[in-house]
């Protein structure tokens, strides 16, 4: 099984993209929609629970598992993923999308959590780029983001050296 992790800053479209991928036949899970990962103003994934999620997908015969979300400890857990993809979005778009949000995941949309996200925006993107994440322009409409994601992930896989 191939595990792809897709992450991005707040309001980069992670949950929307996960729903779009699932609607179009991909095994995609939005980890951000599960509020049990959240503790206060931070998100930390339980490594055992993440491993169980991946293991269950493998047992079900899933070919490619798309895990979509954000956690403060995701970089530490990134060895579990075959490819990491970064939804790239600028701060102005983050603020605009937060203001336009009507439904979905509102974790950290206001106050100190939003301020913290904006302050850590540049370092978040840099950290995932250093990790080798494939970068996708998340300011485009969702179908275009999904197409670019699928293309970039496929290109990454096809150009890798065999193990």
Which structural category fits the helices and strands? alpha/beta
Order of SSEs: EHEEEHEEHHHEH
> In CATH, what is the homologous superfamily?
P-loop containing nucleotide triphosphate hydrolases
Radius of gyration (Å):
15 Å
| Biggest sheet details | 5 strands, parallel
Global geometry: globular
Instruction: Look at the structure and give the mean pLDDT.
Output: 85
Q: CATH architecture, please?
A: 3-Layer(aba) Sandwich
Q: What is the number of helices?
A: 6
Fill in the CATH topology: Rossmann fold
Query: What fraction strand?
Result: 15-25%
- CATH class assignment: Alpha Beta
Q: Main sheet: which strands, in order across?
A: 2-5-1-6-7
Domain module count: 1
Termini separation: 15 Å
Instruction: Please estimate the helix content.
Output: 40-55%
The number of strands is 7
The unreliable regions are none
Protein name: Shikimate kinase
Organism: Actinoplanes auranticolor
InterPro entries: P-loop_NTPase (IPR027417)
